[in-house]
Amino acid sequence: MTTSPRLRALTMNVLAPEYADGPARRRALAAALAEAAPDVLALQEVVRDDVRALQAGGWRVVPHPRYGPDGVGAVLAVRAPLGRVRTDPLRVTDRTERTPWCGVAAAEVTYGEPFGGVLVVHHKPSWPYGFEAERERQARAAALLAEEMLAAGAGRLRHVLVLGDFDAGPDSASLRFWRGLQSLGGASVCYQDAWEARHADAPGLTFSPDNPLVRAGDMPLEPGRRIDHVLARCGPHGPTLRVESCERFLVAPVDGVQVSDHYGVCADFSVPEREPGGWAE
């Protein structure tokens, strides 16, 4: 029995290494990533040493356009060769100066058949609770950047994946926009939420009070949210990729080490046997 080729995308906010024994957490993270073997990787709260370690491990990396004054930022990493790359710091209002490393990084990546050209987008909007206005504008800007790259790559790009720490739950305006449930500023897109596709209404919390690093951190009253997402773009007749699986990543400690205050999200995609848009014969 043969299995269909899969494309694995993984996002995780790995918590800046200054907190909670960063070296031990990074060692556990590296071992877990080697075992999971993702094709597309979006990491948040990394420092430049983390980026250099990815490069030394053979990853092709696209850092986000800015690091914070503490040296913390985000990175998109892929195994396959990179094509065109674009980044944007998503400075949509004056308040985004309070979140200096928000931004988006997008890259064209060419895989073997049946995937072909894939646009991968790492989206990291502003994080504070009261910044949904910024997250709405940032979602619109990131989505339109992806649409521009998709149009420019017509004939090369077949699929789009967007992943990252969105700092917003599925019912927020910014995520409703991504999911095709509402427009923002006269624009609309539609992406399938990989978690929702496999787990329906299961909570799937990624920032949870069950995590001891959340309880120990600077948001001790956090009630729990699903704010880390992997999304696949829909064409006129639905998603162009099938979600084969989607699970949280590094929920349990590794040899006693809780890797981060976030749980990651890991999703496997395949190309459907029949492309949406036509009736079966």
Structure description:
This protein has 281 residues and is of the alpha+beta class. The chain has a single domain (7-270), classed as Endonuclease/exonuclease/phosphatase (Deoxyribonuclease I, Chain A), CATH 3.60.10.10. It has helices at residues 22-36, 48-56, 132-152, 173-178, 194-199, 212-216, and strands spanning 7-13, 40-46, 60-63, 73-78, 82-88, 103-110, 117-124, 157-165, 191-193, 228-235, 238-239, 242-249, 264-270. Strands 5, 6, 7, 8, 9, 10 and 11 form a 7-stranded mixed beta sheet that branches. The protein has a 6-stranded mixed beta sheet with strand order 3-4-2-1-13-12. Strand 7, helix 3 and strand 8 form a beta-alpha-beta unit. The model has no long low-confidence stretch (mean pLDDT 96).
Number of beta-strand segments: 13
**Can you tell me the overall shape?**
globular
How much beta, percentage-wise?
25-35%
Distance between the termini: 25 Å
Looking at the chains present, what oligomeric state does this protein adopt? Answer: single chain
Level of helix content? 10-25%
CATH superfamily: Endonuclease/exonuclease/phosphatase
* Text of the CATH class: Alpha Beta
- What integer value in Å does the Rg equal? 18 Å
Produce a short descriptive summary.
The protein has 281 residues and is an alpha+beta fold. The protein has six helices and 13 strands. The protein is 22% helix and 30% strand.
Secondary structure layout:
Elements: E1 7-13, H1 22-36, E2 40-46, H2 48-56, E3 60-63, E4 73-78, E5 82-88, E6 103-110, E7 117-124, H3 132-152, E8 157-165, H4 173-178, E9 191-193, H5 194-199, H6 212-216, E10 228-235, E11 238-239, E12 242-249, E13 264-270
Parallel strand pairs: 1-2, 7-8
Antiparallel strand pairs: 1-13, 2-4, 3-4, 5-6, 6-7, 8-10, 9-10, 10-11, 12-13
